[in-house]
């Protein structure tokens, strides 16, 4: 892949910033390389305190994620995982750096009640399809395919308030798939779920990737055991990705980090 070419032809962002002003130094490139779904180079993000001081959150953070795979993003509390995910989602603008992301992309929130808002499962999944000018049959077929991918087709007519947290997460993912999203950004979906729901959601994501054409997922988590489902993973520390690799190499890296930390505090 010709990365320099990928980053040269920068286009303006198509999604307006929600929380911070766009920086003239940040560039966005849309749909350049089919093998890569997400590519960030030297992303920086700072927050201004009330006193006017700039606090760096992301520091020259770089990452690269291949298309069609499930990747996980791990790291200690406060290292910048959610900030990075929000930048990828277009909810925050980097202070500087370059970003390439396939579109459409969808951000699935930790708390599904912030996302699954329509009265029934079918209404919720079809909500985003209004803009696509589909016939009623096409909408039904798209919704049913998306629900099937997350193992929720039997719940089509269910009122959403009767679903468990994990089932709501799966409905939120189905909504994103119905809109033909290419990149799923998933923010600590399993935090509030019991063990059965956790496994149900992660398997639903994995199955969605298998069932869909070229969908890529980035999954933020604290749970090392979830790495077994990952095609690859990123480990962040102090505002940047310090290691990128397959699930088991990241697992070994984190365990080595943990034991060196324990040795340090015991010595
Ligand atoms: N709006 C904000 N104002 C001030 N500091 C912020 C703001 N948003 C994030 N931070 C700080 O930026 C750092 C990174 O936060 P972020 O939420 O991205 O970390 P994280 O890795 O997702 O953490 P966790 O694993 O605890 O969810 C933290 O130190 C956090 O306190």
From TrEMBL:
<dbReference type="InterPro" id="IPR003439">
    <property type="entry name" value="ABC_transporter-like_ATP-bd"/>
</dbReference>
<keyword id="KW-0813">Transport</keyword>
<feature type="domain" description="ABC transporter">
    <location>
        <begin position="38"/>
        <end position="263"/>
    </location>
</feature>
<dbReference type="GO" id="GO:0009941">
    <property type="term" value="C:chloroplast envelope"/>
</dbReference>
<dbReference type="InterPro" id="IPR017871">
    <property type="entry name" value="ABC_transporter-like_CS"/>
</dbReference>
<dbReference type="Pfam" id="PF00005">
    <property type="entry name" value="ABC_tran"/>
</dbReference>
<dbReference type="InterPro" id="IPR050334">
    <property type="entry name" value="Molybdenum_import_ModC"/>
</dbReference>
<protein>
    <recommendedName>
        <fullName>ABC transporter domain-containing protein</fullName>
    </recommendedName>
</protein>
<dbReference type="GO" id="GO:0055085">
    <property type="term" value="P:transmembrane transport"/>
</dbReference>
<dbReference type="InterPro" id="IPR027417">
    <property type="entry name" value="P-loop_NTPase"/>
</dbReference>
<dbReference type="GO" id="GO:0016887">
    <property type="term" value="F:ATP hydrolysis activity"/>
</dbReference>
<keyword id="KW-0067">ATP-binding</keyword>
<keyword id="KW-0547">Nucleotide-binding</keyword>
<dbReference type="InterPro" id="IPR015856">
    <property type="entry name" value="ABC_transpr_CbiO/EcfA_su"/>
</dbReference>
<dbReference type="GO" id="GO:0005524">
    <property type="term" value="F:ATP binding"/>
</dbReference>
<dbReference type="InterPro" id="IPR003593">
    <property type="entry name" value="AAA+_ATPase"/>
</dbReference>
<dbReference type="GO" id="GO:0016020">
    <property type="term" value="C:membrane"/>
</dbReference>
